[in-house]
Amino acid sequence: MKVAIVHELLTRRGGAERVAKVLADMFPKAPIYTLLYNEKKLSDWFPKERVHVPNFQFSIFNFQFLYKYNHHLLLRQFPAMTEQWDFTDYDIVISSSSAFAHGIITNGKTKHICYVHSPARYLWDATHEVLDRAARGPLGFLKRKYLEHTFHKLRIWDAEVAPRADVLIANSKEVQRRIELYWRRDSQVIHPPIDPFWFENPKPKTQNPKPYFLIVSTLTPYKNIEIAIQACNKLQLPLKIVGEGPDAKRLQSLAGKTVEFLGYKPSTDVQKLYTEASAVLFPGADDFGMVPVEAMACGTPVIALRKGGALETVIENQTGLFFDEPTTESLQSTLSSFDANAFDSTMCREHAKQFSQQLFEQQIREIFTSI
Q1: Per-residue confidence at 277, pLDDT binned at 50, 70, 90?
Q2: What is the rounded distance in angstroms from the CA atom of residue 193 to the CA atom of residue 359?
Q3: Reading across the β-sheet that carries 3-7, which strands appear in turn?
Q4: Which long-range contacts (CB under 8 A, 24 or more apart) does 260-268 make?
Q5: How far is Cα 295 from Cα 345, in angstroms, rounded to an integer?
Q6: With 70 as the cut, is the pLDDT of residue 60 above it?
Q7: For 25, left (φ over 0), alpha (ψ -120 to 50), or beta?
Q8: Fewer CB within 10 A of the terminal residue: the chain, N end or C end?
Q9: How far apart are CA 330 and CA 264, in angstroms?
Q10: C-alpha distance from residue 365 to each of 117, 145, 312 (Å)
């Protein structure tokens, strides 16, 4: 079979990009189509010679240059850019979609399997939150009006193209619910895989002599990291934060003496941090969330918001704890009662095996053979 892979934006290393990498490794001869490509950051995952970008991306209006500042300025162009690719010569196209890739056009011969990380959050369930945030600061009123008009047009397109894929795969039950709600379509759940690397160094039996809590995350507002910082400030608990992002400066301004920002760290360093942490904090409501599973694979329990994908990955009182409200007070209460010795690292690791790359690949191949 001739296979092609589509992933909207290859501009950063996130959970969606990790899924796309596994798909690319499963089908090493498949070309990879994307709207924007950061070769410097991702060439080791997605070699330049395999990556295809829209032909008019390098016209007078330089899209590649613009995305470095704010790719959201290109939202209105993305649907047309997505639809211009011709997949006539392929037997199967598998897309990895968070906003636009599900809208590619295929003919009756070419089958389209779409792995859905989520229908675009900013077009549906998070619209008002995004608009309220855009309205802040200078020219906020104009930014909000622009986005209201843009989102309206994109929602119409999003609903119209929802029937195009032959098969929809949801990355979690929460995403499956959204697919049914917004697109009126059925889907099956295949959880994202974690790299076998995270299982390589078992957690030592002795506790770290300098215990700390850990966050591994892109530093963006919706990750809700500020409540973890504030809770650790109040309780004077050591917190290490790994990651980069547009919200870094604001979060750093909130940090007390016990909070340390480590910036970007390679996987080997992150694995060591996971393994030595008392617990990994997950204060946001992700659709799935790779970090809790990676932490458990390293033998470390998770303290997560009782919402979203964490409900499908963390077993309460066995591989972690939940806090009920996205507030500093709720997290603070759970942190106060947390006892690292109450959790078995072996149980955490065994549970994480349910999200192995081997199982993911097996489930994807079963769909390929049945379509």
Answers
A1: very high
A2: 8
A3: 51-52, 32-33, 3-7, 92-97, 111-116, 167-170, 188-189
A4: 267/195, 267/197
A5: 10
A6: no
A7: alpha
A8: N
A9: 28
A10: 19, 45, 23
Cα 218 vs. chain centroid, distance in angstroms? 9
Residue type, 365: R
CA 192, CA 234: separation in Å to the nearest integer?
35
The whole-number average pLDDT for the span 324-338 is 97
CATH of domain 196-355: 3.40.50.2000
The structure tokens 């991306």 sit at 57
Query: Where, residue-wise, is CATH 3.40.50.2000 in the chain?
Result: 196-355
CA distance 182 to 161: 12
Do the Cβ atoms of 77 and 34 come closer than 8 Å? no
pLDDT, one tens digit per residue, over 73-103 is 778 889 999 999 999 999 999 999 999 999 9
Tokens 């549906």 correspond to: 124
Lookup result for tokens 């909130």? 254
Q: Work out the average pLDDT over 1-14.
A: 92
Closest CA to 355 of 294, 285, 299, 266: 294
Helix H segments across the chain? Answer: 15-26, 39-42, 63-70, 78-83, 127-134, 140-161, 173-178, 225-235, 248-254, 267-276, 290-297, 310-313, 328-337, 345-352, 357-370
Backbone angles phi, psi at 194, to 5 degrees: -105, 155
Give the separation between CA 209 and CA 207, rounded to whole angstroms: 6
Quick one: average pLDDT of 217-231? 94
Evaluate whether 8 touches 71 at the Cβ level (below 8 Å).
no
Looking at 3.30.60, 3.40.50, 2.60.40, 1.10.10, the CATH number of the domain 3-193+357-370 comes to: 3.40.50
> How is residue 168 written in tokens?
């929809």
Q: Which own/partner contact pairs does 109-112 have at CB distance under 8 Å and 24+ positions apart?
A: 111/166, 111/167, 111/371, 112/87, 112/164, 112/165, 112/166, 112/167
Using the 8-state DSSP alphabet, how is residue 182 labeled?
I
